[in-house]
Design a protein that fits this description.
Elements: H1 14-22, H2 78-97, H3 105-114, H4 117-131, H5 136-157, H6 160-171, H7 180-195, H8 202-230, E1 233-236, H9 247-259, E2 266-269, H10 272-281, H11 285-296, H12 308-324, H13 330-335, H14 343-374, H15 383-398, H16 402-405, H17 411-426, E3 428-433, E4 445-451, E5 456-466, E6 476-481, E7 492-500, H18 513-530, H19 544-547, H20 549-554, H21 561-567, H22 579-587, H23 593-611, H24 620-631, H25 647-650, H26 661-678, H27 685-696, H28 704-712, H29 718-725
Parallel strand pairs: 5-7
Antiparallel strand pairs: 1-2, 3-4, 4-5, 6-7
Length: about 725
Amino acid sequence: MRSSPKYTSIIATVSTLALALGVAGCVPNTEETASVSDTQTASADPQMVQPAGNILTEEWTGPFEGVPAWDKLDAELFPVAFEASMAEVKRQFEVVVTNPEPATFDNVFVPVMLSGEKMDRLFSYWGVQTSNLSSDRVRELDAEWSPKISAFYNKLTLDPRLFARYKEVYEKRSSLGLNAEQTRIVERAYDSFVRNGANLPPAQKEQLIALNSRLSELFTDFGGRVLKDEQTNIFVSDEAELDGLSDAFKASLASAATAAGKPGQWAIKNTRSSMQPTLQYANNRALREKVFKAYAGRGDNGDANDTNAVIEEILKLRQQRAELLGFKTHAHYRMADTMAKDPDKAMDLMMKVWPGAKARVKEEVADMQAIADKEGAGITIEPWDYRYYAEKVRKAKYDLDESEIKPYFELNNMVDAMFDAAGKLYDMGFKENTGTIPVFHPDVRTFEVFDKRDNSNIGVLYLDNFARDGKRSGAWMTTYRSQKGLGGEDNVLASNNNNFTKGADGEPTLISLDDASTLFHEFGHGIHYLLQDVYYPDLAGTPRDFVEYPSQVNENWLMTEYVLKNYAKHYKTGKPIPQALVDKIFKSDTFNQGFATTEYMASAIVDMKLHNRTDPVTDVDKFERETLEEIGMPREIVMRHRLPQFNHLFTSDAYSAGYYSYLWSEVMDADTWAAFEEADGPWDRTVADKFRKVLLSTGNETDRADAYRAFRGRDPDVNALLRRRGFPVPGE
């Protein structure tokens, strides 16, 4: 998942700011911008708003054009830092809106894009504090400050003086001698202002600010409740109950139990990184059921962490906001600035894939049930059996066991592999920094990124790979500093974050093939932003249904012959993965695609149906259940993210009515990989150079659909995705 660039100018165009405040786990997203109070430092002297000794507001120092002082992070410093940073933004805002000169691109858009650097730095700290190092105190601060910051930015954005300056430039843009990029910025910013309420009368603007502020509170509340459920453990006192689990995984569970104050036991944390291997390999069906139900029930237990009422209020407020802004539904509002544009178009794509996915699930379940029957298990396949019996089917059909694969996918080797692949494709080099720059946790590794052609520095990559208490679940990428030519910031500080289960003390960390794909996926986001080469920050972001595309493309290089031969080496013997095992993997390439596709698409379809309606849902569990029945969800599978724990949807607006974007992006991904295959294979530099030049480095300088056509010569072909997943292709 891509967490948005840290770009928090006075407005950062409304949509970009929304992401900057939301997905990255900094401050829950509220779609707009606004104020703590009218009286707060409207004309403050910048020398008066710098809190003495507060590292969070100071400029970054050290190598690479300055790096965050992670080693001095202190949650108690944030309140004063927020006040100071908002005061600076307010001062910068007043300079723009009170300028007596006629509005121009240079005296309106440029200073706005250059504003907010102190807040940029602060949000980078806050993003790590809330996403990587959360605690009860951090969640208290988040609950207090998210609505304040939301209101602050909303009020600035909705100030009629600012819109008047933007509108003046927009209306005379044809006579200002603007170039194509400047014109795109002006037109997109104006459209964004209008779309987000700039033309509303004062009373309705105040209503919008109130809606966004309350949503901000609810986003924080939702994320905190889910995180608390994920911090629970299922403790096992009898090792016999763990039969089937690998020694390495059991050792990690024992370490987790010791850390939780129960030495001699085993702790299965309520997170995907612990749940998935347990459901795949544990022979104890009762344990599998217990782990599955705990994981699937996060946020849905009728206790203090239950999220259903929070979701219902979020949905009500989202629809009120959409109607206030002139949109039929929240889905129409959110999709107005995407590649798909319209909810029906996104749903049409999903329904082209959904029937094939369901049909494949039926076949997969039949194969699993046959094995269970042959073994005399006396069961009917249930959701907590799917992964377990899928492994048995894999073994029976392809003589392939995931446990055979894992010893060849040692984490450090896979990190080296993804770096090498980026070097071969894009001339990117990586050199590890050892103790030379601060990190926020001892497990974090940092790498200097440079251009191998001339050794010039590109940036720094922070790599935080392991799960721990206080770290939110899932995997994500963000930037602490993004590239922008305007203002001279070219040194990118990028961060990849995963939740792998760390090997026991002294043992290597072995990851699954899925985990390795996740590693390459998040690094694909990193490549995208490290290679960005845009001048204006307002053209740095991309539409939600484009942003996952570069990361999904990058997954393809994991299973190339070069990577497997050089990096998939047994962690004990050092021998490369045998070709016979590789052949088995490829032979099973479409194995379990019914499960993978249906699990994801159910979440995407439910998301769209939840938000593409005028009457907000008032019974979340009932809606989820009835919608899944309506679309024919196989009973043996649950959604990848059930609504009560769906962080993508309810910790910000960023992925709401947008979870389809992974599928949208994957269509482009499959079609792009076909371009490499049609050329000279995965390392074809002609295709790689064009991919970099036309799509990776250009941000949002042109419409991304047009950019894709420039790269491929046509629109993406959905059939490439169907073929990849082994689903029927119409007409073939």
